[in-house]
Design goal:
mainly alpha, globular
């Protein structure tokens, strides 16, 4: 319990600097609305499907319910934490880091009230990309290490616990690689792969992210950040996108995100000088999850390819299509 108090304190302190200058929360469309487990599950499905505009329209309603849910006992706090985690992850995807930090703080606070190590791990993962992108990779890694220890210190893990432990380990591995710490990066990646094998023995059910393909996806980004492009490309060739559990993950297998998941194929191909191959991967992004192709970080990859190879067939249309749509969706 003492470790858990320290961990949630880390979640809050690590991201709390965002709160001082962040915009106030917009009022939800239905003050006093109750938040159900079905609401959280719907939000997770929309995020997993890459339906970010739909999720953005529903989040104000969910957040209004989360405000109340945080005070409704451990189960209500867990549901509220799930909403704040979704809000933080969506804000990161849309490049709104200050808002993501505020949402991560709220996720951490609600997770503390829930008393659930799996929920707490989700809050830690929500805070990690914000910290990484603002030069605080060391803080992010410490937070993820604590979350992993908390999850694995107890009795035999449930399927949900294994899924959370593996994903925290992958996030920690990616964070360590970004901080140029090869030993912990490789150690955490190996732990995640071992956990994924254990998870395979559990019956399917519930919301899952961890799989062998997910571990391979992270390995691509880990080895790229460690400067081993050849090994990153080897993992790219070994990746089976069908093994990734959601359209969002399959899209992220084709591009670089710099978030809680791995840097993937398009960025590695850029490093290798293969502009045509990188653009082919961007096309796969749009096919798998169109909203991923309109994200700022993915559009930056498009711009990089266009600067190097403006003659690639279809590239100009692709760039106009994704940029124009993104401008129209800026308010989501």
């Amino acid at each position: 319990m003492e470790r858990r108090r320290m961990l949630i304190g880390g979640v809050v302190v690590a991201a709390a600097w965002f709160v001082r200058s962040a915009p106030a929360y917009a009022a939800g469309p239905a003050p006093g609305a109750r938040l159900s487990a079905g609401d959280v599950a719907l939000g997770q499905r929309l995020f997993a499907a890459g339906a970010y505009e739909d999720l953005g329209r529903l989040l104000p309603l969910f957040m209004a319910g989360a405000e109340r849910g945080e005070q409704e006992g451990p189960a209500g706090a867990a549901r509220a934490a799930g909403v704040w985690v979704l809000a933080a992850r969506l804000a990161v995807k849309q490049g709104r880091l200050r808002e993501a930090g505020v949402h991560a703080v709220r996720a951490g606070s609600a997770a503390h009230r829930s008393g659930d190590a799996v929920v707490l791990a989700g809050a830690a993962r929500a805070a990690a990309p914000v910290l990484r992108r603002t030069g605080r990779a060391g803080q992010a890694l410490a937070l993820l290490q604590e979350a992993h220890t908390e999850l694995t210190a107890g009795a035999r893990l449930t399927a949900a616990g294994l899924d959370a432990a593996g994903m925290v380990a992958l996030t920690a591995a990616y964070t360590a690689a970004q901080a140029h710490l090869p030993a912990p990066a490789r150690d955490f990646a190996a732990q995640a792969e071992q956990t994924a094998r254990r998870l395979e023995t559990h019956p399917a059910g519930g919301h899952r992210e961890l799989s062998a393909a997910q571990c391979t996806l992270y390995r691509i980004g880990i080895h790229r950040h460690l400067g081993d492009v050849d090994r990153a490309l080897a993992y790219t060739e070994a990746l089976e996108p069908a093994g990734l559990l959601t359209p969002e993950r399959r899209a992220r297998a084709a591009t670089d995100t710099d978030t809680a998941t791995a840097t993937a194929t398009a960025r590695v191909l850029l490093d290798a000088g293969d502009m045509a191959g990188a653009f082919a991967q961007l096309r796969l992004v749009e096919l798998a999850a169109p909203h991923e192709a309109r994200r700022p970080s993915v559009r930056a990859v498009t711009a990089h390819i266009a600067a190097r190879r403006p003659d690639l067939p279809g590239l100009a249309d692709y760039a106009r299509r994704t940029a124009a749509h993104r401008q129209g969706a800026a308010g989501t």
